[in-house]
Specification:
Elements (H helix, E strand, L loop, with lengths): L4 H4 L22 E3 L1 H7 L2 E6 L9 H15 L3 E5 L3 H13 L2 E7 L5 H9 L3 E5 L3 H14 L2 E3 L5 H18 L5 E5 L4 H15 L8 E7 L4 H4 L21 H11 L2 E5 L1 H15 L9 H11 L8 E6 L7 H7 L10 H7 L6
Parallel strand pairs: 2-10, 3-4, 3-6, 4-5, 7-8, 7-10, 8-9
Antiparallel strand pairs: 1-2
Helix pairs in contact: 3-4, 3-7, 4-5, 7-8, 8-10, 11-12
Bound molecules: ligand F0G.
Ligand F0G binds next to α4 and α8.
Length: about 350
């Protein structure tokens, strides 16, 4: 087994010799050059493919630490509200730690792969007749009232674990990129990356802090609008959030880094989602394409210089949301099981 993420970055994380390390061998995800996207954007674009984590999203970086600390504290159950990925990650790490796991999901709004994952890992699922923000409100109440540990990103261990994404980027590139682009939902991840870059700078491992570029879906863009959205809507169900918990910290990351937080439409998100799959071979979930949609939008305004290094965080795997993939793809050609019919339908000509 490759070393646990917590072991690799132990000196930066709040663990002691007594902390039981709950790991599924997370992190160490690929940083892929993106030649087609680079040409379109007019800069040097890399993709940090977080879909390669054990539960298929970046959440595992924070969950390994949050669940390890929950286990250390002796609590018997972990609880979270989720648009799906946090829940899948919590369920898997709680199973590994033999802790009870309770997840509250917005009913009817969670992608199929995430539901499957949560169920198979034995979590107790509550489908809340409301949105993510309402579910999170209930989880905060439960965690304040009962002996259950909240593993949403309001839990500081989640943020600390997710800092490791920034560490890995700098370890590969040798410095911070000029820009980092990413989707923003509950705003924990942008908070975590910015904290990670700053921590690495303090440790003398980084000279250049990146400018943070965050992108919300246009139908769920409270930070861009400057006010909560009571009925958030977007095809990118992972970031269908109207009142992000780490709102202030996301604004701080934006302002301290000289970056921006902007909105992209569902059409822009789906176009980037298709481009990533068909031109770069990277199948991600729709929310994960929001950062790429964002840099494509900025590129149209001449935002980047050719020498700019831009890292996009591809936050979750495409298999999380098979329904959106199938709905976005052309229908397969149906043919009889005959060699000639298949060859001629494909337009193949013999040599
Ligand atoms: N991308 C994906 C695939 C996500 O699942 C999320 C958040 C984000 C981006 C946004 O990250 O919330 O830290 O700003 N998913 C949460 C969940 C809300 O419940 O799985 P954020």
């Amino acid at each position: 087994m490759s070393p646990a993420l917590i072991e690799r970055y132990r000196e930066f994380l709040p663990v002691t010799a007594d902390t039981p390390i709950v790991t599924l061998s997370e992190g160490n995800t690929p940083l892929l050059p993106a030649p087609v996207l680079s040409a379109q954007v007019g800069a040097e674009v890399h993709l940090k493919f977080e879909g390669c984590n054990p539960t298929g999203s970046f959440k595992d970086r924070g969950m390994t630490l949050a669940v390890s600390k929950a286990k250390e504290s002796g609590v018997e159950a972990v609880v979270c509200a989720s648009t799906g990925n946090t829940a899948a990650s919590a369920a898997a790490y709680a199973a590994r730690a033999r802790l009870r796991c309770i997840v509250l999901l917005p009913e009817g709004k969670v992608a199929l792969g995430k539901l499957a994952h949560v169920s198979m890992c034995g979590a107790e699922v509550v489908a809340v007749k409301g949105n993510f923000d309402e579910a999170l409100e209930i989880v905060r109440y439960l965690a304040n009232t009962y002996p259950v540990e909240m593993v949403n990103s309001l839990n500081p261990y989640r943020i600390d674990g997710q800092m490791t994404g920034a560490f890995e980027i700098v370890d590969v590139l040798g410095d911070g990129p000029v820009y980092q682009a990413m989707p923003v939902g509950n705003a924990g991840n942008i908070t975590a990356y910015w904290k990670g870059y700053k921590r690495y700078q303090e440790a003398g491992r980084l000279q250049r802090l990146p400018r943070m570029l965050g992108f919300q879906a246009a139908g769920a863009a409270p930070i861009v609008l400057g006010k909560p959205v009571s009925n958030p809507e977007t095809v990118a169900s992972a970031i269908r959030i109207g009142n992000p918990a780490s709102w202030k910290d996301a604004e701080a990351a934006r302002d301290e880094s000289g970056g921006l937080i902007d909105a992209v439409t569902d059409e822009e998100i789906l176009a980037a989602y298709q481009l990533l799959g068909s031109k770069e071979g990277v199948f991600c979930e729709p929310a994960s394409a929001a950062g790429v949609a964002g840099i494509l939008k900025l590129a149209k305004e001449g935002f980047f210089k050719p020498s700019d290094q831009v890292v996009c965080i591809i936050t979750g795997h495409g298999l999380k949301d098979p329904d959106t993939a199938i709905a976005s793809a052309p229908t397969p050609t149906s043919l009889p099981a005959e060699k000639g019919a298949v060859a001629s339908a494909l337009g193949l000509e013999s040599q």
